[in-house]
Write a structure and sequence with these properties.
The chain is α/β, with parallel strands linked by helices. It has twelve helices and nine strands.
């Protein structure tokens, strides 16, 4: 670890903006909100996913954001090899920035979800046959890569995904000049963040919102700090909801079965076993000359797993996926696909009642 700067009053979080390659005001609001969330002593913390082409300053942004709250002699780390490495890193640092991630495997995506909302891991102690070592942590996480990082629904529901544009040659800065300028501005930026934290601590006990999104504690925390940030009330909720919808759309685009499910729902309610559904979806894909991809589910069980991960995002686009059983002693598990008549809340309520 390295020391934090001594905070200086009178600054403004806008002093951070020249050092970050953010294309829009909404992206800027989300980055500041995520940085402010890092200063909460307890989670949950949204996962920050930075995507973009080479030369978009993704690694620089990750390093800079960590430097604000958790400066370290090794600011970035490569993607871990296993869950044990993830939890050891969490036990020895506050913010975990995974740099240049080319692909998020299923186990790593699940591990990051556990870090975001809290989770544990146990392993045998080295050189011991019966002693167990327990790790438990909730941490802010940054992942950056070129594309396709957040494709699983459970991670997408916890993530803030930003796409950074490539920086033109005429706007590039030398590393030494860039970091010298940032080090000079950091005490005032840090002071402004702490002023926002003070405002949030003062306002949070009296704050109530009519509607709470996923990662509700994060939304409440940043909303409570909005006056100190100079934002209008409700700014965070508005941009966060827009971001979540965009991330949900990316999750659906990454699944090859979604177009066939949409067409099936358009034809009217469908109900049957997962085996029958897989056969029906494959026929729909063949009819539209969409040859099933390598990621196409190979078994009814794999299809059920994929549908459960996609169910929340499918409801957001107006398709209900309901799981149930046939009546009687020899009951079978069933899946029902139908259009959602109403908003997302109504769909979620029907899904809860059917389970």
């Amino acid at each position: 670890m390295m020391p934090l700067p001594h905070p200086v009053t009178g600054g403004n979080v806008d002093g951070l903006r020249p050092f970050l390659n953010v294309p829009s005001n909404d992206d800027w609001f989300l980055l500041v909100a995520w940085a402010l969330a890092m200063l909460r002593p307890t989670g949950p913390y949204p996962v920050l996913a930075l995507q973009g082409e080479q030369g978009s300053a993704k690694s620089t942004a990750a390093r800079l954001l960590r430097d604000l709250v958790d400066p370290n002699t090794t600011p970035l780390r490569s993607e871990p090899r296993d869950v044990r490495d993830v939890m050891i890193a969490a036990a020895n640092g506050w913010c975990l920035p995974f740099d240049n991630v080319s692909h998020l495997t299923g186990w790593l995506s699940d591990a990051i979800c556990r870090l975001s909302t809290g989770g544990g891991f146990s392993t045998r102690e080295l050189y011991s046959d019966d002693q167990e070592k327990l790790f438990e942590a909730t941490r802010p996480v940054i992942i950056n890569g070129i594309d396709g990082l957040v494709v699983r629904g459970d991670l997408a529901d916890r993530a803030i995904t930003l796409f950074l544009p490539t920086i033109p040659d005429g706007r590039r800065r030398a590393e030494a000049d860039f970091w010298k300028a940032f080090r000079a501005a950091r005490p005032r930026i840090f002071g402004a963040l702490l002023q926002a934290v003070a405002a949030a601590l003062n306002r949070l006990p009296k704050l109530s919102l009519d509607r709470l999104p996923r990662m509700a504690d994060f939304a409440l925390w940043v909303t409570a700090a909005e006056p100190a940030l100079g934002w209008e009330d409700g700014t965070l909720l508005c941009v966060y909801e827009t971001s979540r919808k965009a991330t949900s759309a990316l999750t659906l685009e990454a699944s090859p079965v979604v177009p066939a499910i949409q067409r099936l729902a358009e034809q009217g309610p469908w109900s049957g076993t997962a085996t029958g559904l897989l056969r029906e979806l494959t026929l729909h894909a063949d009819a539209e000359n969409e040859y099933p991809q390598r990621s196409w589910p190979k078994s009814p069980w794999a299809l059920s797993v994929q549908l459960r991960r996609l169910a929340l995002d499918l409801r957001a686009m107006g398709v209900d996926v309901l799981f149930g059983k046939t009546p009687g002693g020899g009951s079978k598990r069933t899946v029902t696909i139908k259009k959602c008549a109403g908003d997302r809340d109504a769909c979620d309520a029907r899904a809860a009642n059917s389970s």
